[in-house]
Amino acid sequence: MTRSGGAADREDTLAAGEAFEAMPVALARLRGADLRFAAANAAYRALVGTEDLLDRPAREVLSEDGEQRLLPAIERVLATGQPASSVERHVVVAGGRGLWLDSVLAPVHDDDGALVGVDVYAADVTERVEARLEAEQRARHAESKYARARELVVAMQDAMLPHGVPILPHVDVAARYLLAEGDTRAGGDWFDALVLDDGRVALAVGDVVGHGVAASTVMGQLRAVLRAAVCEHGDPLRAVEFLDRYARADPAASSTSLVLAVLSADADRVDYVTAGHPPPLVVPATGQPRFLPGSGSGTLGSGLPFHQVREDLDPGDLLVLYSDGLVERPGRTAPHSSLELVTAAREARDAVGGRHARGSTGADAVCEEVLDRLTRRTGYADDISVLAVQRRDGEGGPGPAPHLELVIDVEAGRRQDVREARAAITEWLEDLGVGDADAMALTHAAHEIVTNAVEHAFAEEGEPDHGPVPVPSRSGTVTVEGRVRRDGRLDLEVRDDGRWRPPVARSTARGDRGRGLAMAAALVDDLAVVGREGGTRVVLTHHAQRAATLLTGQGGYDDEHVGDFDLEETSSGDRTTVRAYGELDLAATAELESALLAAPRGAGSELVVDLSEVTLLCSAAVQVLSEALRRDDRVGVGQTTLLAEVGSPAQRVLDLVRLPHRTA
Question: CATH no. for residue 512?
Fold first, then answer.
């Protein structure tokens, strides 16, 4: 039978419709400016979860969220006539179900070539996308967990290891500790440096076998026991034998390696014991570095006897102790690593050549250069400790530690600015490499004593204080001297040739102004005041240390605003914030006081005094802040809040004087 043309067309149309309906790919045609559904096959209806699609606008069916939206892409195809693909677009369909779709979008033209709609070919990729998103979430969680674990490791190592090494007049001591890359396990390496009563210097580097909290705990115990043994016996052999007896009672301490060296008081001789540990390296002022002979002893708990070796040191010699992580680096044999260490030490010495940054020493610079040169080549798989010491005699090495001597001329009738003296003290401490915490304590304490001398020593008997910056009635001098003791303590002496005025309780218009001396005494280890007819002598003594650098990339207190003082005031609603920057000394106190008094106050208001960027907070400023807090209680209008960044100089002083404050 022959089909008529009309019947054939109807059959073809029916077949095409059935094929469209049965296709496994989700297909739909959208027509008109509002993109209404003209057709949708079974796969598409199942995808969006509804049979009711015909003549409905796409916006009613495909709700969207997030940035990867599908509808704007369809509208662009309708507007431009250009086909497009859409990858991993998120839509929300019937029942609030979210889908991720990959789509191909094709323009639809009528017989005249006019754009009339868009064909949508969609594939559900929800399972694939959600699996990837879940994996990414797990990765982010693991990364966050790793970061927290590493922060804990760093904190643990920082707590277990010494925070500094001694500053001495006749030798330079420097230390570096490099935490293993990618390692979240606390290590067992340690180092230590201490000054003995007779002026000798004990140096130790050790390595407990294993990692984790247990190894770190054993490390802390061994370091404490060894320190006590060295102080008690003063002899490296007897100290190591004592530590060995302790280690044999604790299986976790077995196989610990150690090198203990004691430098003579004149730094021209070293006695040492190597207990299963690499021997010290001597880097001379010129020529090839050399390893000292090992003492032939086994690790702690090995049962082997220990032996002590004595070696002479020449002027300018740099003695380096290190943990095995420095010579047991990836891809290197022990002989190759040892040869590289010798080469790196020689290159570092030649590169430094007496040139190093303020606050750094030759020993500091060589430690840093050696670490950088070796680990940059191969990386490192274990923690690394490096401890270096060098004679300060000027013969091939650095000269003796610098002294400070400064004379301040006090002129009658002229307000005295002590900033020059403070700057000289700060520069001296920087030259010595004093760590931030000790430098802050000494700078603040010295500022109080110098200010006290200028303020009171040259006033007439019975003369009251006038204003924040008193004007002396008589001329004279204030002398400041600083020196480093052989026991590792720093002395700062301030003496004047004015009138001795015994401390008495004074009540002035500014309240109790006697807190400066007490604050200075609390900041340093010792403060002695000697009054005499010809003036007053005050000696500050403090056991200052050079920072022993734990290399972890951590940041610390930001001291960007150093030097001149500045104030910034901002307001928001009932809150006024006064931010102080720089040195809040006696001269700047009046400016701060004026700003606090002028700040708008009212019922329910708050005045925030942000001291986070203050690098010096003198006792006069403390008094102004104290009065501001008391004024709140007395007047009962508004509230004053003191704010200081954790670890900043202001926060330490506020803690010291017990002024209520919040930390940023």
Answer: 3.30.565.10
- Parts of the chain with a pLDDT under 50: 1-2, 66-67, 183-185, 465-468, 505-513, 553-562
Q: Are 448 and 619 within 8 A, CB to CB?
A: yes
Q: Which residue has the tokens 């056991």?
A: 543
Do both 98 and 168 map to the same domain? Answer: no
Chain centroid offset of residue 73 CA? 48
Residue where a domain terminates, one of 367, 391, 415? 391
Tell me whether residue 137 is in a domain. no
Single-letter code of the amino acid located at 157 = Q
Query: Is the distance from CB of 609 to CB of 643 less than 8 angstroms?
Result: yes
Residues 359 and 297 in one domain: yes
For the segment 520-575, what is each residue's pLDDT rounded down to a tens digit? 898 999 999 987 777 889 999 999 998 887 665 333 333 444 457 889 999 888 88
Same domain (yes/no): 247, 325: yes
Of the residues 391, 424, 440, which one is the last residue of a structural domain?
Answer: 391
Three-state secondary structure call for residue 413 = coil
Instruction: Say yes or no: 194 and 264 in one domain.
Output: yes
DSSP string of 422-457?
HHHHHHHHHHHTB-HHHHHHHHHHHHHHHHHHHHHT
3-state secondary structure of 268: coil
Please indicate, yes or no, if residue 136 is contained in any of the structural domains.
no
This prediction has a pTM of 0.69
Assign 3-class secondary structure to 42-102.
HHHHHHHCCCCCCCCEHHHHCEECCCCCCHHHHHHHHHHCCCEEEEEEEEECHHHCEEEEE
The H or E element that residue 166 is part of is strand 164-166
Could you give the strand order of the β-sheet that contains 84-92, starting from the edge strand earlier in sequence?
Answer: 36-40, 26-31, 115-124, 98-109, 84-92, 63-64
How far, in Å, CA of 446 to CA of 541, rounded?
11
Say how many domains are in the chain.
4
**Which region, left, alpha or beta, applies to residue 66 given φ > 0 means left and ψ of -120 to 50 means alpha?**
left
| Rama region for 499: left / alpha / beta (φ>0; ψ in -120 to 50; rest) | beta
Give the domain range for residue 568.
Answer: 558-663
Nearest to residue 115, comparing CAs of 71, 74, 69?
A: 74
Residue 135 belongs to some domain of the structure: no
Domain CATH number, residue 594: 3.30.750.24
Q: Which of 500, 574, 563 is nearest to 533 (CA)?
A: 500
Q: What is the pLDDT of residues 308-339, one digit of tens each?
A: 999 999 988 999 999 888 888 887 777 888 89
Instruction: Give the separation between CA 243 and CA 221, rounded to whole angstroms.
Output: 10
Residue type, 67: E
Identity of the amino acid at 474: R
Q: Which residues contact 399 (CB under 8 A, 6 or more apart)?
A: 392, 393
